Amino acid sequence: MNVPDPRVGTVIQGRYKVLERTTAGSMGVVYRGERVSLKRAVAIKFLHEGYAATDDGRRRFEVEARAMSRLEHPNCVPVTDFGVDDGAPYLIMDFVKGCTLRQLLTTEWRIAPARAVAIVRQLLAGLEHAHAHGIIHRDIKPENILVTPLEGHGEHVRIVDFGLAKLRDEGSFTTGVAVGTPSYMSPEQTIGQKADERADLYACGIILYELLSGVKPFQGETPFEVMRLHRDEPPPPLDVTAAGVTISARLVAVVMKAITKAREDRYQTASEFRTALEAVDEARGKQSGGGLRVGIAAVALAALAGGGFLAWQRFGRSEPAPPPPAPEVLADRAPPPAAAKAAAAPRPAPAPDAAPVAAVPPDAAPAGPAPDPADVTRLRILATERGDVVGAIAGLEQLRKARPNEVAVHYALANLYAQTQAWASAVQSYAATVRLDDGYRGDARLIGDVVEALGSKEGHELAARLILHELGAAALPRLDEASRSTNKELRGRASRLRSELKGRQ
């Protein structure tokens, strides 16, 4: 049974009518809307309430929203208005039709070199403008790049989500954490160092490598292995003669410099990187071989397959699954080796919170055949690559009913619920996880999410019970951090639990 979205049909502060929910992600939910007085189409993104729950959060949200509103460049999707409606901060952006670069890669697998160079040159032009305004994106990836066909003028590339990665990072009470999407994170980001312009340029180099080769340069079984590869291993050489298309030696050299490990050895500015691309043969349309499908028809096909684009992607659940890439997550906390097979998924749309912590007893009889581990991976991809987070949750819930003792399913569901701040459901799933596998009692992600749940209305009692009766002293370091949080409720509850746990030692 589909529950109607209460926001659809409402008018925000007398100015913007919410028409249709399109997708949800780690930061919030996106809707198609219109400016009432002008009948002009807009995209509305409601951020999760936690981003403006405190005075400091509201100040930070306003600072970042104003920064995003200063972007006035054809290769950027700027914020045109912002505010807080009933406790939820929102952003208003242009309504953009087209498809994401991820959708395009799903349709085409790889992109002809001249076209790939043209796309990345526009991407760099947008970043050059943003960096000049002091805005670092920090989560450049194909999902955040829009491609729109322009009749007679090739393709128009735009970047979305400027400033939100920084808002997400600073909104956490953790420090020294890795924030981003593992396949596109710079080596310095993987160890929690502050990202500057060169992190965005590294991500552009990774994207260019992927466009040219059809594969990401670093692939591993878990996001944390992918992050290690970015830090420690050289990328595989580009296949310069695949599919009858030759990539020039100069273009290969540009790509490899862009993804150098040490940031001082990379391109230092977007302008420098773009100038290097303009000097390659492919920038003038020169290439050998037959090439691949290019141009407006392919973009239109990708947009049709994805149902269009309203500043963020909109995907139909009936659409066939793409080839399974390495799963993408917001890698803010790394699980221990025992948890590596159940790597985290991004945050979906909020789901109804369950009241009790109803963990499955370890000796419960299985209710059906064990799920294929690939099923969990495909559902994570459904949430990340396809934007259908609700469908991913539904699929994982079906797997949990079929096999209640499968720890990977409980853990993946907990990650999804926690990332949308559906805290009671998250804690319930984490409780099942630790009771099924003791190895998760020390899991950094699990502990961090359960401690963060202490600051919520719905999940704080369940979280306190789980910390006291299951996690114990392993939660003390995170409780120490939370006891200094600017969130009053989180600070008080964490301090009390910290005192009680220390009193037991």
Write the layout of secondary structure elements.
Layout: E1 11-12, E2 16-24, E3 28-35, E4 40-47, H1 55-69, E5 79-85, E6 88-94, E7 99-100, H2 101-108, H3 113-132, E8 145-149, E9 155-159, H4 164-170, H5 187-190, H6 197-213, H7 223-232, E10 245-246, H8 249-258, H9 270-278, E11 288-289, H10 296-306, E12 309-310, E13 312-313, H11 373-384, H12 389-402, H13 407-419, H14 423-436, H15 444-453, H16 460-471, H17 476-482, H18 488-504
Antiparallel strand pairs: 1-2, 2-3, 3-4, 4-6, 5-6, 7-8, 8-9, 10-11, 12-13
Helix pairs in contact: 2-10, 3-6, 3-9, 6-8, 11-12, 12-13, 13-14, 13-15, 14-15, 14-16, 15-16, 16-18, 17-18
CATH class of the largest domain: Mainly Alpha
Query: What's the CATH H-level superfamily name of the largest domain?
Result: Transferase(Phosphotransferase) domain 1
| Nearest-integer average pLDDT | 76
First-residue to last-residue Cα separation? 49 Å
Low-confidence stretches: 171-177, 287-371
Describe the global form.
Answer: globular
Structural class: alpha+beta
* Spatial arrangement of strands, main beta sheet: 1-2-3-4-6-5
Count the domains: 3
Largest sheet properties: 6 strands, antiparallel
Radius of gyration: 23 Å
Shape-level CATH architecture of the largest domain: Orthogonal Bundle
Q: Quote the beta fraction.
A: 5-15%
Number of strands: 13
Tally of DSSP helical segments: 18
Q: And the CATH topology of the largest domain?
A: Transferase(Phosphotransferase), domain 1
**How helical, in percent, are the residues?**
40-55%
